[in-house]
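Recap from last week: sequence in, structure out.
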Amino acid sequence: MSHHQPHAAAAAASSSSSAPATAADPEAPFLELLARGASADAYEQPVLLARAEGARPERIAALEAAKRLALGVREEMEGRRRREAELSALFETAHDLAGLRDLDAVLQAIVQRARSLLGTDVAYLTLNDPARGDTYMRVTEGSVAARFQQLRLGMGEGLGGLVAQTARPYVTDNYSDDVRFQHTRTIDAGVYDEGLVAILGVPLMLGPQVIGVLFAADRRARVFAREEIALLGSFAALAAAAIDTANLLTETREALGELERANEIIRDRSGVIERASDVHDRLAELVLRGGGVHDVAAAVSQVLDGSVEFADAEAAPGEALEASRGEGHAVRRGADWVAAVAAGGELLGALVLRGHPGLDPVDQRTLERAAMVTSLLLLARRSASEAEQRVRGELLDDLLDARDRDPRLLRERAARLYADLDATHVVLAARLETVGADAEQEAAARRRLWSAANHLAATRHGLAAARDGGTVLLLPLRGDGTASGIAAHVAKRLSAAIHETVTVGASAPVDDLAGRADTAAAAYAEAQRCLDALRLLGRAGEGAAAEDFGFLGLLLAGSRDIAGFVDRTIGDVVTYDERRGTDLVRTLDAYFASGTSPARTKDALHVHVNTVAQRLERIGRLLGADWQSPARSLEIQLALRLHRLAGADIR
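Predicted structure tokens:
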């Protein structure tokens, strides 16, 4: 007990001594308000509280004096914070100006910061147009009216025009009622659309010259303080400096451009020789890295500073092409130059320089050299293509002919040609239907067919070879494709490619081409039978597989797909009987056995003639309206007999 008494006594003494001091210290509550950054209204509370408690007049007077002092300190602190923010914004703007890359971005930042620090609804900047003798809107921030953003002010018109004319700042707390300014319908309409009331404008000065005006504006009446006018003037000075810097940079670039052009004129004559050397190096590099004719055209375009294109012999200008070929030089045709691309006696095309009529001899020689390189590239590409075609043809020949072969080696050879012998394929036999006027023309047509077939095979990751006076192709079967669909597609593509009629027969899909020696040969024989059938039936120019020939397909197909024929021919009727327990197949069989007589059919089936008629109507809906035509009737009777011989559903 005695141990804690001294502390308690001390605390009591401290409490009793501090209470009067606090009560006697009028500054204390205001210091607390300053410390927590209270609003100006909060400084009335200590005085009001003292009056409510009935404090002595001296106490209230002391609090009033402390309040005024505290508000003064608060105002000074607010001013310093505001000046600190202003200085920070000015510093950031100066920093932007020091690293000026985009004038519009710097001006936009200036306007944004001016609007933020002055707390206005809108800020904007106009620039003088010496050519038109007025000033126009360049940057706006906070503006919403399109007409206001596109305003142009004549010198002396409106507040901005007056600032631009007098080089002095102007301010108004209510623009529409202010008679100091020359009001115009256009300006007043723009200000009205934006809803502006109070406007402050300061000039942008470069030395003694006004180049524009910086504005801050509110949509309510407001009196701008002297400090705010000075702050906006500081931003205007930075904006003028930014514009001056940008102008200097532009002038510097223009001066450098003029110097460069002068230097180019000086180097002109030596430049053409350097270009010739450059194009020689580029063309040599293109040849070494296996570039194409369009790469050559692009390289020459850069060197000659024009547009160079490669055109096939059919598309090139005929007269100019023949003239260039005959003279061995590039020839001018209007504003273009044409250089023939030829190898030996064969004309392969031309290099055409567009829209470049003024061509000096060195550049002309450059174009001719490029045409020579192009001919070499075309010959090299042709040789490479022919070599690849031979390799594809040799592999397909081995698949068709070789008996003692290594499946692994065949797969490796195919993989190098991007072909997969383990995938399902279709073998196709293609043949020309038109005969040339002489043996040479016919041989040329066959070569075109072989070349087109090789191109198609390469794009489809297949193989092709010339064989038996025509062409044989091995193409992979993709997705839900069919042999019939591939045959029709190949016939159409090859006919369009060589502008001749091409007939194509296809085998049924085959697998394991590398593993089984006779697979490819048997499929090719089936494709040839389909091709011959198409020609005998007068269907030249079409493509088909055995499945397209009805019962003839049984004779054409190597697999003798009897079940498939029955299914394609009467499968719908068989399925209908299985699902519904009807006798449509038996009725169909009896109908043909009775010589297509419904009366004899009803006797054979021991049913009423109306029942026979109803069943025949149902059969017609399942098989199609032409089921009793001679050709369809023959196929249906054959399918019925094969179905009966099978003794069961062979689907």
